[in-house]
Amino acid sequence: MKGAMELEPELLLQEARENVEAAQSYRRELGHRLQGLQEARRQIKESASQTRDVLKQHFNDLKGTLGKLLDERLVTLLQEVDTIEQETIKPLDDCQKLIEHGVNTAEDLVREGGIEMGSRSCSGWSRTPELKRSSLLSLPEHEPPCPALNLHLDQYFASYNFIFLPKWYCIVDDDFTAQDYRLQFCKCTSNHFEDVYVGSETEFIVLHIDPNVDYQFRVCARGDGRQEWSPWSVPQIGHSTLVPHEWTAGFEGYSLSSRRNIALRNDSESSGVLYSSAPTYFCGQTLTFRVETVGQPDRRDSIGVCAEKQNGYESLQRDQAVCISTNGAVFVNGKEMTNQLPAVTSGSTVTFDVEAVTLGTTNNNEGGNFKLRVTISSNNREVVFDWLLDQSCGSLYFGCSFFYPGWKVLVF
């Protein structure tokens, strides 16, 4: 019993030594870890400092290169301005020389005439002043040769559903041959003209004209091999009297552009026909649909015109309507024709041309039949047929229906 009690302090002492050694080892390990952290911190700071120096140097180099490029570009542009200035002023300098020469000639004439008047009688008048007077009968031009431009607005198109067709011609001479034309327009209330066409043609269709608003058009020309444009023609004023083609706003399943002439099918939960906001299509016109994007096709899809809005139908493939499906099938009063057009793809343009044919009577109880001649064109192919309606229509609605999202169509 006594021996066991003597061993217990030694065991406690041994345990204390082991604990001290473990603590020292732990402290050394923590010291190593701390040194590692300090080394990592030092490396990070050095790397960040080097990166900052590299970035600063890189951007300083970029600034130098960019500044050099800008300086070179500035010099080039200034040289171009100098060249244009010299080319533009040269005719004026030449004109000034001619005018100064004319002034000197006139002064000589006045001086010589005064001498003659003081030394001769009227009966003995010299012919010299009369001969020199002929040089005063023509004045030099102060502007370079330019064409006489005449602008004309086609009145048929000026009243044709927010479309203008400006036409122009150029009276040329031996010193000027027109190569390009520049057409501008603006609202009369603005007087801020903007380019609408630059090219060699002498007519151009201007779209998206607001109804019942006066517009000014003007045109100028540029000669063959010349940089400068001629003076503007006298502005012509015109306006459109018909409202533009617009889709009905707020129809579920479709979103419209700001002008409401582009409709996008944006979901497949709802169905039905999206009609025009009003019957704005008149016989004798051309109604055009351009498919901007396509979705999944369906045989029930339709693009066309109708005599009146009829809610409750999921397609224009119904009575009192003519349409084309996205697969190219043509429907007249709900019946599919034998002739078929190419399938509608992205970028396809479908046009409808409708003309009144006859207005007759029948012996049945339905009253008169009104016949329209319809031409539908798509992808360089067309079908022509007669469309019978129950009654005459002064104007028609247009519409479309798509059963899957992604279809976008522009009407004009």
TrEMBL record:
Fibronectin type-III domain: residues covered: 147-244
GO biological process, one term: negative regulation of cell growth
Any Gene Ontology CC annotation: cytosol
Localization terms from the record: Cytoplasm
UniProt keyword Cytoplasm present: yes
Source superkingdom: Eukaryota
Entry's Gene Ontology molecular function annotations: identical protein binding
InterPro entries the UniProt entry points to: FN3_dom, FN3_sf, Ig-like_fold
Role: May play a role in the negative regulation of cell cycle progression.
Protein name: Cytokine receptor-like factor 3
Source organism of the structure: Propithecus coquereli
